[in-house]
Write a structure and sequence with these properties.
By secondary structure, the protein is of the alpha/beta class. The protein is built from six helices and ten strands; from the N terminus they run ββαββαααβαβββββα. The strands form four sheets. Strands 6-9-5-10 form a four-stranded mixed sheet, covered by helices on one side. Strands 1-2 form a two-stranded antiparallel ribbon. It has a two-stranded antiparallel sheet with strand order 3-4. α4 crosses α5.
Length: about 270
């Protein structure tokens, strides 16, 4: 293993994980011109595979979702975060699966730094049109809330209708995930206001090769109308304020003063 390296994004120093041995990097044995991002797809005859084979693949994908992924990109060993891998490999957007973009790599690296910094509440993203920011935000909401117990993700936008449209993107992504990334939900898989993961899920264990019940997440993602007191007194694990510079129905500054304590623990 080589030493980890530091990079700087928008003046923030970010430490990358140690580069693995060459043969562990996807595409290491391809010619330089053929080294680029490729999705990992479900194995052929997925339904016919044994429980153990399925579990090996599932554990691989959960590990990559958590720890990230290395691949060769035009001769350069390239690291993407677990969140970015989840977005590229398993989250469908309106055009299908997202393309790999280096600016998205930097976006997700920056987000990971913000998320793990105990002094940070997140990030403010200034963007141009058709950049895909809402889809990335929806993906982050889905990834964060479906990987934790007792987690609440809240969505707001410049109007209630826009927040509802953003929530619809979350639901669309969820419905297109493979089953092993879908916690069992409470109610319909096409909800209008809240995606609730209150029903116990199931898992296959290597030892028994049988389906066993797992603990319910007791987590949810929802949206609210655009008001200054939206999410007042609500404990939040993730909050997305979409189109924050375009609010007309309420003051985004006053709403943040309400939401900020909801993202805090203790003092």
């Amino acid at each position: 293993m080589s030493k980890s390296s530091n990079i700087s994004i928008c003046g923030i120093k970010i430490k990358l994980p140690s580069k693995p041995k060459k043969t562990s990097i996807a595409g290491w044995n391809r010619k330089k011109e053929n080294q680029y991002w490729r999705r990992t797809i479900l194995p052929e005859n997925w339904e016919a595979l044994s429980g153990i084979k399925k579990q090996e693949f599932i554990e691989q994908e959960f590990t990559r979702r958590k720890e990230g992924f290395w691949f060769m990109n035009n001769g350069t060993p390239t690291y993407i975060t677990g969140q970015h891998y989840y977005y590229l490999n398993w989250c469908k957007i309106d055009i299908g699966h997202p393309d790999y973009r280096d600016r998205d790599r930097r976006f997700f690296l920056f987000w990971e730094k913000c998320k793990t910094d105990p002094t940070s509440y997140g990030m403010i993203m200034v963007k141009h049109r058709r950049e895909g920011a809402s889809w990335k935000g929806a993906c982050i909401a889905l990834n964060e809330i479906t990987s934790q117990f007792n987690a609440h993700g809240g969505l707001l936008s410049k109007t209630g209708d826009d927040a509802k449209a953003l929530f619809a993107k979350v639901v669309y992504m969820f419905r297109n995930l493979p089953e092993f990334f879908q916690p069992i939900i409470d109610g319909t898989d096409n909800p209008k206001s809240s995606l609730s993961f209150n029903t116990p899920g199931h898992r296959i264990t290597k030892k028994t090769n049988k389906v066993q019940k797992s603990q319910a997440l007791n987590s949810k993602i929802d949206w609210k109308n655009t008001r200054e007191n939206s999410y007042d007194s609500t404990k939040l694990k993730y909050f997305m304020c979409d189109e924050g510079g375009k609010w007309e129905e309420a003051s985004v500054t006053k709403n943040w003063q309400i939401v900020k304590p909801c993202l805090s623990l203790g003092n």
